[in-house]
Structures are given as C-alpha cells and as structure tokens.
Amino acid sequence: MNATIKAIRPLGFQWQTQDPFLFCAHHHDFFPRGKSDMSPADGLENRMIGQDFSGKDGWSMYHGSKVPGFPAHPHKGFETVTIVEKGLVDHSDSLGAAGRFGNGDTQWMTAGRGVMHSEMFPLLNEKEKNELHLFQIWLNLPKASKQVPAHFKMMWNEEIPVVKTTDANGRQTTIKLIAGKYGNQGALAPAPDSYAANPANEVGIWLIQADPEASFTLPQSSAGTNRSLFFYEGDFIDIGGERIADAHSVDLAEEKAITVKNGGQTGYFLYLQGKPLSEKVVQHGPFVMNSNQEIQEAVHEFQRTQFGGWPWESHEHTHGKEKGRFAIHADGREEIK
Question: Can you tell me which residues the record assigns to a coiled coil (predicted)?
Fold first, then answer.
C-alpha cells in the first residue's frame, strides 16, 4: 500500500466512515410494480414484515408493513444527508414538515435537540419496476451544536451544482457537489446549524461518475482532514499504482492532490471529507451524544415528549399518489418542483 492510501475496506450495506461522519447507508432496491395504495404488486409473502432487510428478489421492505421504508423514528445529536439518485421518498416529521423528493434531490436534516420523522418509499409506477437508489450519510454534530433546533432543508436536483472535468485523453468525469467545493465551484449552503456550514471544517460530499479509463483529481485538503472515496460500482481503479476493485472504500492522505485512474467500465463513487470533531461519540440507536448520561437524558426526553409528538394519522405516513416533488416546512413555507 502506498503513502497516498491509509486504508482499504470492503463495502457492505452500511459503510464505515471517518470522523466527522458516523456511517453511510447505501440502498439500491429494484421494487416491483406498485398497486394503487403504493405497496408492492408482488405481495409480501415470506417476508419478515417490519424487519425485512432480506434483499429477496432484489428489494427489501425494511421496517414498512405495507409501503417499503422507515416508519416514524427519532434522531438527536447529529445530521442526516439523504441523497436520492433514483426513486422517491416521502418525508413526514414531528415538526409538521413534509415532502416528497428524489430523482436527484438531497434532503439535509439537522436533528439537533431532537426530531421524529418517517421515510417511506411510495411505489408510484404501476406498469414498471420502481427502482430506488439512495445514500443516507450520518454527519456528527459537535457538543456545542447538539441542542440546536431541528431543521430540514431541501436541495433540489435542478439546483445542485455539477462540475465536469476532462482529462488529457478527452475522457470525462462528472462531480455532483452536495457539500464543499471543487475548484471555484461551491455547493449549495447546508442547513444553517450544520457542521458543514463553517468552511473551516472542510466538509465535502460529492457524487462522482467517471468515464471508462478516465482520470480525475481529488484536490488536496489541509492537515488533519479525513477523506474517503467509496467505489461502489465499476471495474477497478488505480491510485498511485495500487489497483483497487469496486465495492471498496479507500481512506486517503490529506495534504496532497490525488489522481484516480478509472478502469474499463464507468465508475461510480461517493467522496466524503471533513475535519474530525475529535470528541467522544456515545451512540444508542438514533441518539448520538458525548456521554452515557447524555444518552440516558435523550432517551428519557424522547419518552416524555416524543420530540413534539406525531401529527400524522400513521407512523408510516405517505402523501397522495397524485403529488409530485414538494416540501412543506415547519414554518408553513412550501416548495413545489
């Protein structure tokens, strides 16, 4: 292993990340046709309903009982960045905010002092399969920000900056900027109390697509920055003479620009970087704090308040089938795409 590479790991469903990130969940489901109620037309026989992560026939129900997804559950002390490249997600939360987003959109949610939300995957297409491809990244919050008000922000696909580079042989790489900057191009602003809101933290979240045999460069970051490249689909890559197969992550050295040479197939990558918090992490399910006492307090608070209660008729709330992409925020502000 060369000096450019710190570690290489195989990928699974839940990807191991470096501080300030907690982990990344990667979902790629080829759901069947939907019925009129947005549930799978193929039925749910032989599935462990409420806990189906089987991948049977290329898809899972997760915790959903009718529509696939994740019914109402709490978060506190960190942020979720949900990047939906294909398919749609129905969001509902305890603050009264709601939305349907996907097909290139990203939702940035700072849980802060606490929020309960659901993420359901409505199967709107009744004639063809409903493909869902998403990444959910958990970004930690520093101790000083773990009690900020919960906030949810939409980054619509049409507004997310994309950078295209061409190597010496004319082969192209496309970089979609969810956070951070590439060259002179910056991403959209994250949620206001996000750890990524301070440029000094050098948080970067990029989706990268490289042509076969294309080369692209990851710019150097400052000393102490953690950065990882997740190679989730393709053939192989070469970094400094080290050949790496797809379905692996690579932790990279920081104080140098790094050239990645793609193999003979189109390569797909997620890139994460950021200055580490270097704080103690104590996690209990969806609560991420700095001590066991704070975890106990978080659990008791949720039991007492439900982080505002659940204003929807079901913990598996979905929006009307006729709805397009939209967001309604807790303050009543509405976005329609």
Answer: none
